Amino acid sequence: MLPPTQQALALVDCNNFYVSCERIFRPDLARVPMVVLSNNDGCVVSRSNEAKALGIKMGQPWFECKALAEEHGILAMSSNYALYADMSNRVMSILRDFAPQCEVYSIDECFVDLTGLPRLRELSYAMRERVGLWTGMPVCVGIGPTKTLAKLANHVAKKHPRSKGVFNYNALTAEQKKQLLSRLPVEEVWGVGRKLTQRLAQRGVHTAFDLREAHLPTLRAEFGVVMEKTQRELQEIPCMPLDQVPADKKQIISSRSFGGKVTELPVLQDALSTFVANACAKLRAQNSHAAVIQVFLQTNRFRKDLPQYMPSLAVPLPYPTNDSLEVNRWVAYLCERMFKPDYTYKKAGIVLSEISPVTQRQGDLLEADKPDQHKLMQALDQLNARYGRGAVKVSTQGAYAGWQMKQERKSPNYTTSWADLPWV
DNA sequence: TCTCCGATTAGAC
DNA sequence: CTAACGGTCTAATCGGAGA
């Protein structure tokens, strides 16, 4: 019997994605060391190569970088998710033209199944070139027999300029594979983070090769099923299928850190009703409803000098809902129950869980259906789709300022808003 | 003793 | 001038409560 054809999975990953999105519309910044900050202009979430070279760390709080930034003229921008989402969609639709089987894994990554296709190197360069030509986005391509090895190959493509942005693990000999894995620290393997790296080191596992060759029963007993899957994937045995259609969310969270100090109930309610609007819109977009609503409030956990209060309260509903107004009433009630004066709140949010498709709605013996409410929400979604998010709001939204996040250096919405184009 | 549940942990990006 | 540290999501695991 012939062995089955080896899978060829390509992981296409955009380089420094958020920074690259910004640079596409500001070619003058091509060589300027720069970073993009998280919401509230808090932490560094994307770095140009120049910023990496200067020692700026991923996830580092921006205020910690200020001195270094001033010294070297590092530019910081607020994140512009409307822009990044739109650029991502453009890149993904180009990749889909190359192979029907793909999984959009994250905003800047896509697994593309190239199994059985000839001349993978040429094909990969063609993908890179077309994405670059049509969108301006630089990407690297890693090919492997499993997702984990495709990821690993992509890492090699990114790190070694000689690869010119493409690396094919499948094309290596057994000896070359051994060499490569032996030189790769185990923390570079997908699924191995900080904690596991430490625990693995205690057991003498330092490189990807060590992990591939580790004694399975011990590994399994000590680290669980996830690590076993990772090991098998390193052994070229696929354990993670390609998910072509994104699964419905099982939980939807909407939360924000506040830009300013929030001490008053109405301001919290204002913020929370905005979170409700966002979360319920997501819920309706996937045709689901939720049976548990949870609200949480948080003071600033980094201010050890101030009193801390981090309450959280949930309500199970007798029947699930996706109605913003109904959810809003529950959220307001839960918030009021927990609110205490004399604390400075830094963050709040809501969690919708026990989510199920609306088609599975249980008939309620006591409560009649409310079709009018469904129509109201449909109309609201349509208006917000046509005129932009927030065109129609609930009355508790927007009356109180002071909680909105800080975004001092946001670029224009180049691709999604005519009004943002200064030259139009 | 078995099962279920909530909380905690770890990871990705 | 001072204070300034993200947001969403999933899966596994563990310990205690309840059947």
Please explain how this structure is put together.
- The chain is α+β, with helices and mostly antiparallel strands.
- It is 39% helix and 19% strand.
- It has helices spanning 17-24, 49-53, 62-72, 81-96, 120-135, 147-159, 174-183, 194-202, 208-213, 216-234, 265-285, 324-338, 371-387; strands at residues 9-14, 34-37, 44-47, 75-77, 102-106, 109-113, 139-144, 166-168, 252-262, 288-299, 312-321, 345-357.
- It is globular, with a radius of gyration of 24 Å.
- The mean pLDDT is 90.
- The protein binds a DNA duplex (13 and 19 nucleotides) through helix 3, helix 8, helix 10 and strand 9.
SSE order and pairing:
Elements: E1 9-14, H1 17-24, E2 34-37, E3 44-47, H2 49-53, H3 62-72, E4 75-77, H4 81-96, E5 102-106, E6 109-113, H5 120-135, E7 139-144, H6 147-159, E8 166-168, H7 174-183, H8 194-202, H9 208-213, H10 216-234, E9 252-262, H11 265-285, E10 288-299, E11 312-321, H12 324-338, E12 345-357, H13 371-387
Parallel strand pairs: 2-4, 7-8
Antiparallel strand pairs: 1-6, 1-7, 2-3, 5-6, 9-12, 10-11, 10-12
Helix pairs in contact: 4-5, 11-12
The chain binds a DNA duplex (13 and 19 nucleotides) through helix 3, helix 8, helix 10 and strand 9.
Question: Which tags fit this structure?
Answer:
424 residues; alpha+beta; five-stranded mixed sheet; four-stranded antiparallel sheet; 12 strands; globular; DNA-binding
